[in-house]
Amino acid sequence: MSETGEVREAFRRASALVADHRADLDQAVHLMAVHAWVGGGAPRFAAELSRHRAILQSCLETALTEISRLVVRHGMLPPGMTSVHTSVTSMTATSSAFRGVDVETMNALVCSLERAAERMSDLSVRLHAELAVLCLPTDPGWDVAHSADWARGQARDLKRRLSWIQRAEPDAWTPWDGGVVSSGVVGFGFFEAFAPDPGMAAALLRRIAAGDHTALMAVVALQEQGQDPGLAARVHTWWRGLPRGLREELVSAAPQGVGALNGLPASVRDRANRLFLAMEKTRLRAESARLTREIAESGRATMFLPLDAALNALRRIDIIERMLTVGGAAGHPPLLLLSFNLTGLGRLVVSWGDPDTADTTVTYVPGLGTRLDTFDDGVERARRLWQQCQTTAGGRHVASIAWLGYDAPQLDPGIISFGRSVAMGGAADRGAGALAAFVDGLHAAHVPAPSARNVLLGHSYGSLVTGKAAVLRPGLLADDLIFVGSPGVGVEHAGDLGVAPGHVWVGEAGNDPVAYLGRFTADPGDASFGAKRFLVERSVITEAHSSYWNPYSSSLRNMGRIVNSQYGHLIKPEPLKQPQLLMPELAPPEVRELNR
Known about the structure:
alpha/beta
């Protein structure tokens, strides 16, 4: 073989090494981040693990780049470069006075590190050989070898720690919930003195375990602020460490708090919320009957206001119950009730499919004018997206969440107030904290899976909420961000949102007036923003802003493909075959149809 052919063949082998080894440490990073280890030395270990993952990928990129340059020096065209970067969306371990490990997940972490060390050792030898033969610097091979040694040493150290915990706290290794030995969570030192944390979450969790159910709502209030990225992980570990009987007692005695607590399993939240919904229905029926009798007997007009409030709450319960009856029917997964609130504008969070076990989870964040009374439309949008995703997902399972977890701006006189106006960002600031905390909970409660994906879809003002949440959790919120009908997401460039390049998507329907506002910083639809545009059909101006979920539409199919990371299968615009009308709503029906 000629020297030129040898160089080309070396590049091919190096590309194969990149594809085979770029994700060697991804599973360990994911397992660490999804609650394998919380508190203590977890943050330092997580940072070191991420650093060695970055070293691995940097070494692969350096080697491939050097060989590519050699190809060019031999008179050939630059070869196509294999990407060395992978995405691991999960929650970073955070500092905490609470120390705990999920033993089963920790054992998986140890095994993952051992496998990675073995694979990287083999990679270092092959990488060194490829570069040496070509008379190129062999530093990447040596650096990978050092990272392999680090992974091997950490695996040994973690094994010793687990063995020590088993000897120190043998009771923590007894079977729970019918599981096998060592499947539980060890939270050593949890019921001893705590150092104060910023939100006193540790003390509140201790009070709940001691029987103070009122502390549950205090933790819920803390999580609404979204200031503590590690709160949901600590809540999840705390819940797993409670005896089964105490968990059942909390669900029965305080279903409102349990149902709203981020980090708990979705099935637990669903059960608690359904119980609370039934309890509220019974209470409100009794209250409305009492108020009706008192009005009839006394004729006091002051009773009408509380009666109206009780009847309105009952009407909202009926709305939620009707939604829940659809789940599980006609091939659909059960509709899980993850959160609700009957007061004010109302709150509702439901999921088509179990986000704890889904391979891909997508969360839809609605915008202007959304309230509980009309959110059946939002739940239907989440259902359509689930259905669209599932048609092309192969064997992967999808969970599609409709998240009304904030007070969206309303088209009423209150729109002039700072907190609710679509022209202001106050509602988005508060909603972003709640959304970030909710996604923290999705990560914390998810069954560890290295290939699991998380996607957020913001519509209208909900895209601003989503953008602000991404800024609160840079690099941790989602694998992909999708914005449709967006007036702006609160940043100047897609790169400010903390997701990997090329994973911010924008869809704008023709004639969507909100999409062209650019009210909140830059317009995401502008090329200068740096997002990827996907095809959305043009629509009449009165329908454009809500057209993104139309059945069989290009926009719905494209969103499904993005959620499933099938980026190469997006529907592309067809070449124009006739003039396009700027105002299709003014054209005759037959012409309007041609321009869709």
